[in-house]
Specification:
The complex is a heterodimer of chains A (264) and B (334). Chain A has helices spanning 3-23, 25-31, 33-45, 56-74, 77-85, 87-92, 98-126, 135-163, 166-182, 200-204, 209-221, 235-262. Chain A has 264 residues and is mainly alpha-helical. Chain A has one domain (3-262). In chain A, helix 3 runs antiparallel to helix 4 (56-74), helix 7 packs across helix 8 (135-163) and helix 7 runs antiparallel to helix 12. The two termini of chain A are 23 Å apart. Chain B is of the alpha/beta class. Chain B has two domains: 2-224, 3-Layer(aba) Sandwich (Rossmann fold), CATH 3.40.50.300; 228-332, Alpha-Beta Plaits (2-Layer Sandwich), CATH 3.30.70. In chain B, 33% of the residues lie in helices and 28% in strands. Chain B contains eleven helices and 15 strands. In chain B, the strands form three sheets. A six-stranded mixed β-sheet of chain B has the order 6-7-8-3-9-10, sandwiched between helices. A five-stranded antiparallel β-sheet of chain B has the order 14-11-13-12-15, with helices on both faces. The longest helix of chain B has 16 residues, at 170-185. The radius of gyration of chain B is 23 Å and the shape is elongated. The chains are: A mainly alpha (264), B alpha/beta (334). Chain A binds chain B through residues 2, 5, 8-9, 11-12, 15-16, 19-20, 23-24, 85-87, 89-96, 263-264, and chain B through 52-56, 75, 78-79, 81, 83, 85, 87, 89, 91, 93-94, 98, 102-103, 105-108, 150.
Chain lengths: 264, 334
């Protein structure tokens, strides 16, 4: 296999997605309005829940993570669009390595995630959210954001290969994505369920990958991982490792299912 | 030298329930324009998809494109062919130049290589003045020309054009035909599939007629027409078709009777030695009260060839034409 050619082909796929993204940048910035509203509007309002461990930085980091996941969930739709208009066939009759198509798309998704994170972080700072200013922490936060975007894109690229059309894809993404987000520490700590009949939700949360992304982001931006303090000071790096493993695993499985779906 | 050598190529779908291509065997010689003809669902596109490495064949004895095996050496084939698909596939969010640039990159071309090549090709398809316009502003004909340019980017030895004039107006079609002839003159072997018989007749050096995945006939357009006899008589009328066929079958000079039903009534295609036999035919149909609405006599066209070999008219696919039962077809007068 010619590595130099594979790399060039991957960059070509990435570059095309980026160019399309730039042409449609208005939609991207519009998609940031809602999370910005949450950070400015809802963030201060939850101060009353501080007894539960909810602060503006807790909410803002949750919203940032939610935005990355939600945006990455939509990423494979670009692949579906190419498939629907027949562009994928044009790529497939060219000698481009098949994995370059998936990898290029994932890189474009990661780029969007970084841009999104930088903007959201800036909005949070303007809204007086108490996030770390340390450049190393900011780089660490962006690293977790990329891993999260790659993990989610890989997962849903596999889903796309199975779903085959936009309707099924939307249904499956909502069916998988939303419960994972809402049954996590994204907006409210699961420890709030501890003494209720739904105490199991807190334990189920330990198996929810979204919580590990949140841990990674909060570890760098807030300095601790709310809801996981009992696991000790290493939970932050361990969470990042878990997300890294998941990103690798799901990129491999996503690519596998994609390749299988195009090999007719 | 053969650029495509296919022997017993087969593709089945749905666990063997649908046999799209059935033991197909043919060769395509270097430098020719080779036409695929067949009704909808005949297996033309499936064959093209297998030859362009998009589909994996179910089985084959031999399937070589440009000397490479379509399954084992797919990537080598991809480097050396150009494809224009039935659907217009250009990214409308990009400009003409950008569409070509990304395609060139998929082939591993460097900027120095693709820059001049793109300018040259845009000039060839007369799109130089629209090079930096978004493709969403292009007409159907312009998009097709851009696709041809894209298909030629990698200097292919073999170009596949699948139903490429579908949906274009007559002027745009004629223009595309000129490009195809020009490219062929430059030494590119071209494989075309089309629904338009005049297109295949005008362009193709040789034609393969396939139906239900099987090879029906393979020859030059003129030889195929010659095989049908001197004249083709076409009668459109209403009445008892069974009686009409029985009556016509008794006339010795009729070589072949091909009846089909369409929304005008019945169309009966007859191969006869000359116009002097027409009064006998009219008398025969009048005697059984088969009302003749229209009658035409001409030299056999590719349409008659198609009707002869597939038992269908090409436009059947579009005017709700209904094929008659198989037993009524191909009644021969010995």
């Amino acid at each position: 296999m010619d590595i130099k050619y594979s790399l060039k082909a991957t960059i070509a796929v990435f570059e095309r997605q980026l160019l399309i993204f730039w042409r449609k940048r208005v939609y991207f910035f519009l998609s940031l309005l809602l999370p910005a509203f949450f950070i400015f509007g809802i963030g201060p309002a939850v101060q009353s829940l501080t007894s539960q461990g909810v602060t503006t930085s807790y909410i803002a980091s949750g919203i940032i993570c939610f935005s990355i996941i939600f945006s990455a969930m939509q990423g494979p739709l670009a692949l579906l669009y190419d498939k629907d208009i027949g562009y994928l066939n044009i790529e497939l009759v060219s000698p481009i390595p098949r994995f370059s198509i998936i990898l290029g798309q994932s890189l474009a998704g990661s780029f969007r995630a970084i841009l999104q994170c930088i903007i959201m972080y800036s909005i949070s700072i303007i809204a007086s959210v108490n996030f770390s200013y340390n450049p190393i922490n900011i780089l660490g936060f962006l690293f977790v954001a990329i891993l999260t975007a790659i993990f989610v894109e890989g997962l849903f690229s596999g889903v796309l290969a199975i779903a085959k059309n936009a309707e099924s894809f939307s249904m499956i993404t909502n069916f998988i994505g939303l419960p994972f987000i809402f049954m996590s520490n994204t907006f409210l700590p699961l420890s709030a369920f501890k003494n209720s009949a739904f105490f199991w939700i807190e334990y189920a949360g330990y198996f929810n990958p979204v919580n590990y992304s949140l841990n990674g982001i909060r570890y760098f931006l807030m300095g601790y991982c709310p809801g996981f303090e009992s696991f000790g000071p290493l939970i932050g790096p361990v969470s990042i490792l878990i997300i890294g493993i998941l990103a690798t695993l799901f990129t491999i499985t996503g690519t596998y299912f994609f390749l299988r779906s195009v090999k007719k | 030298m053969a650029v495509i050598e296919v022997e017993k190529l087969t593709k089945v779908f749905n666990n063997g329930k649908i046999k799209a291509v059935d033991d197909l065997t043919f060769n395509v010689e270097e430098g020719e324009i080779f036409g695929f003809l067949g009704p909808n669902g005949a297996g033309k596109t499936t064959t093209i998809f297998m030859l362009t490495t998009l589909l994996t064949p179910t089985s084959y004895k031999k399937a070589m494109v440009l000397g490479y095996d379509i399954k084992q050496q797919a990537n080598k084939i991809r480097h050396n062919i150009g494809v224009v698909f039935q659907e217009m596939v250009v990214d409308e969010r990009l400009t003409a130049k950008e569409n070509l640039k990304f395609h060139a990159k998929y082939y591993g071309m460097n900027k120095s290589e693709y820059k001049s090549r793109i300018d040259e090709l845009l000039e060839l398809v007369e799109l130089s003045d629209r090079a930096n316009d978004l493709v969403s502003t292009f007409s159907g004909g312009m998009k097709r020309r851009l696709e041809i340019a894209r298909g030629l980017l990698n200097n292919p030895k073999l170009l596949f054009l699948d139903e490429m004039t579908l949906g274009l107006d007559p002027t745009a079609r004629r223009r595309i035909w000129e490009y195809i002839k020009m490219l062929n003159k430059e030494g590119i072997t071209i494989i075309i599939t089309s629904h338009y018989l005049d297109e295949i007749d005008f362009l193709a050096d040789r034609i393969i007629i396939i139906n239900r995945g099987k090879l029906i006939e393979l020859d030059t357009p003129s030889n195929l027409k010659k095989k049908l006899g001197k004249d083709a008589l076409r009668i459109i009328g209403v009445g008892d078709i069974d009686k009409a066929i029985d009556s016509l079958s008794k006339i010795n000079i009729i070589k072949k009777i091909t009846p089909i039903e369409n929304n005008e009534g019945f169309v009966i295609g007859l191969n006869i030695p000359g116009g002097e036999s027409i009064p006998i035919i009219i008398d025969a149909l009048n005697s059984i009260n088969f009302k003749i609405k229209e009658l035409s006599l001409r030299r056999p066209s590719l349409d008659d060839v198609f009707l002869h070999y597939t038992g269908r008219e090409m436009q059947d696919n579009f005017i709700n034409g209904k094929k008659l039962k198989k037993k009524r077809l191909f009644r021969r007068r010995h």
